[in-house]
Design goal:
six-stranded parallel beta sheet; alpha/beta; Rossmann fold; 22% strand; 129 residues; 37% helix
Length: 129
């Protein structure tokens, strides 16, 4: 039986990469790929059973292609989680996912870069999957 696949798309910042690595650790039943948005391809997303998008800031330049693609693709059958240390970024990420109809679960907003903790990520993941 093949493992489920998960994709984590990041803005490439150290903070978001730290959170992405904790998400990956928490997805023990999944084959996980972490991909900076600038190297993202649509086929990565189409192959994923669940996906996550994280950004430190709203509207990073590296998300331009992702933003455009999400406005033209239907992902209604796919669960999605967004994460950040910035509420404006969370709202931005929710907004770019709207047209795709992805099954967007409650985001995780870390209170600061220092607050990215494995236990919080694990609890969030358990609610998503």
């Amino acid at each position: 039986m093949s493992r489920k696949k998960a994709l984590i798309i990041t803005d490439g910042t150290k903070t978001i990469r730290t959170a992405a690595l904790l998400i990956k650790e928490s997805l023990t039943d999944y084959k996980v790929k972490i991909c900076p948005a600038k190297r993202f391809t649509g086929t990565d997303l189409l192959a994923a059973d669940i996906f996550f998008i994280g950004s430190k800031k709203a509207k990073p330049k590296s998300f331009a292609v992702l933003d455009e693609m999400l406005s033209h693709i239907n992902l209604a059958s796919r669960r999605c989680g967004v994460f950040s240390v910035n509420e404006k970024a969370v709202n931005y990420l929710r907004g770019i996912l709207e047209a795709s109809e992805a099954d967007l679960k409650e985001p995780i907003l870390f209170s600061s870069e220092e607050e990215i903790k494995k236990t919080a990520v694990q609890k969030w993941i358990n609610r998503l999957i």
